[in-house]
Design goal:
The chain is an alpha+beta fold. It has helices at about 15-20, 45-55, 60-70; strands spanning about 25-30, 35-40. It has a two-stranded antiparallel sheet with strand order 1-2.
């Protein structure tokens, strides 16, 4: 099967390929011996949230403080 790389570096996977691997929104991409290898990654939503918090530098103490602040009596 052929797939065309667009000018914006986008690639559409053939429907037969995506059917064969099942539903996947994300892929791990690596170059190996002159080939592009795509491996489906099933990201849990909780993992995505934790990754974003880590990216923003927000730790467990920050979250605990925010929860405490939001639950305070007014």
């Amino acid at each position: 099967m052929l797939a065309k790389l667009t000018g914006k570096n986008q690639l559409t996977l053939p429907k037969a390929v995506t059917r064969a691997i099942g539903p996947a929104e994300y892929f791990d991409v690596e170059a190996r011996e002159g080939r592009i290898v795509l491996t489906p990654v099933r990201i849990q939503r909780g993992d995505a949230v934790r990754a974003k918090l880590a990216e923003l530098g927000i730790g467990a103490k920050d979250v605990a403080g925010a929860v405490k602040w939001s639950r305070r009596k007014r």
